[in-house]
Amino acid sequence: LEYRRFGAGALMLAHVAAGQLHAYYEAHMNSWDALAGLLLIEEAGGTCNAFLANAGLRRGNLVLAGCASVQPRLAALLAK
Q1: What global pTM score does this model have?
Q2: 12-47 pLDDT, tens per residue?
């Protein structure tokens, strides 16, 4: 497991969508920083958590997104 941070969370999500990172997690991100990147990831074949749940649009939420083979395994690790 390796942690890297290249700047803003929105940029990190773009790196995931481009295949440069396997996954990205952030404990809290605002919707204006997250939604475009999450859409890019889903359009590229990746998976994301339910960001809009629990008023995520207005209050923000945690972000967990990645390639389809990594994101569910990372979600299981974070749930422990």
Answers
A1: 0.85
A2: 999 999 999 999 999 999 999 999 999 999 999 999
Classify 27 as helix, strand or coil: strand
Give the relative orientation of helices 9-17 and 31-43 as an angle to the nearest 10 degrees: 0
What count of other Cβ atoms lies within 10 Å of the Cβ of residue 57?
A: 15
- Give phi and psi for 72, each to the nearest 5: -65, -35
Q: Edge-to-edge, what's the strand order for the sheet holding 47-48?
A: 23-29, 61-66, 47-48
Backbone torsion region of residue 4, taken as left when φ is above 0, otherwise alpha when ψ lies between -120 and 50, otherwise beta? beta
**C-alpha to C-alpha distance for 18 and 52, rounded to whole angstroms:** 23
